[in-house]
Amino acid sequence: MAGSLEFPENFLFGTATSSHQIEGGNVYNDWYYWELKNKLPKAGMACNSWRLYGKDIGLMAKLGYNAYRFSVEWSRIQPEIGEWRSEAVKTYVDMLKKLHEHSIEPLVTLHHFTNPIWFIKRGGWEREENIDYFAQFVEKIVEELKEYVRIWITVNEPAVLAYMGWGSGEYPPFKRDAFLYFKVLKHLLMAHAEAYKIIKNADKKFQVGLAKHFTIFQPAKNYFLDKLAADTANGSFNLTVVEALEKGVLPGVFIKKKYKEIRGAYDFWGVNYYTRHIIRFNPLKIMSLFAESLDGRGDEVTDMGWDIYPQGLYEVLIFLKKYKKPIIITENGIATRDDDQRICFIVRHLYEVWRALKENVDVRGYMYWSFIDNYEWTSGFKPRFGLVEVDYVSFERKPRKSAFFYGKIAMNKQIEEDYLRRCLKINQK
Ligand code: FCB
Q1: 48 lines ligand 1 (CB under 6 A)
Q2: 2 alpha carbon – ligand 1 mean position (Å)
Q3: For labelling alongside 384, which of 27, 256, 261, 391 has CA 20 to 30 A away?
Q4: Which class is 5-428 in CATH?
């Protein structure tokens, strides 16, 4: 490999976070509710970003990043059903203004896993009629923020939320029920379609999408039951969402309903990519449709126990090419205490993005997860995903070497040759 890798001049090089994971003091959502019951690690003050966002944005600017994906916390804005907290909205407006002052493009997520407690008490995503509550929230928040936002992400990882909450039962409300998995996924996708309509009505030029977590599923052996289990996992986790957006077919166990509002209701693909799963057929794994994932047995794994498989990002991008929509990598990152490993992780994944660009895949940006270390859902504060280290006692931020390294890529729109040489050796092993 000779020379450096170049990216388009207007490519977005940013980072991503979400409200509950960084803000601190979120006490009106379902995560907090279960944290109090000791079913989840406590987020507490998290990174105290609700107070320190000005510093964070200043730091992003200094580091040279030109985009930032974050989420607005529904429960903070609407802590009770009839209540609308304008001070909370004002804080988000201030964040957006600061981003603009520094020429950082905001990507705003409207739903990133957490829900107001009042919404959950009414049955949450299990009930179709509750989609209206979310739609009302979207209507209001879009009205308030529309002056400052062009790129909107409706729902983060609908299939992950549905699976973790109603399939594996690791996220609230900790249920294990395949019927509910499909039902909740269906409602989240309908909620996306509603939000899409509302945002586009506010301004046709807005770019609206959802963030889809794509995982590669590979059969453990060349054996038909392993292949079947891997295909089924791919179908229920990845293709359900693709089919909904492309064909207007909603997921279901036996009956798949047509829902024309969702067909084509997206302007770009938001791709969250982390890993692949090696799948073995296991008749006891009913909740995951007989797929057992043999995670963490690859050559290199992260502190989350996830296999590192950069080539999978290229595979996803090439798969999406046929839909002829722009793509933004809305999340990609690594939990590690070894910052050199993080640097190579970024280089190796950006190399795959670059390869896809060479194949004329319309990739417009890359958001590293995450800007700062933060609260990782069921794992608490242990995993270190951040380009910037956080001291959870003093809330001091300390940019790691990778933060500066990524900034250089963002500013020069290229990866230098010696890093390619050093890191890609591993890709080509
Ligand atoms: C994704 C989530 C994000 C973060 C990363 C590590 O699935 O969207 O909030 O937890 O995983």
Answers
A1: no
A2: 34
A3: 27
A4: alpha beta
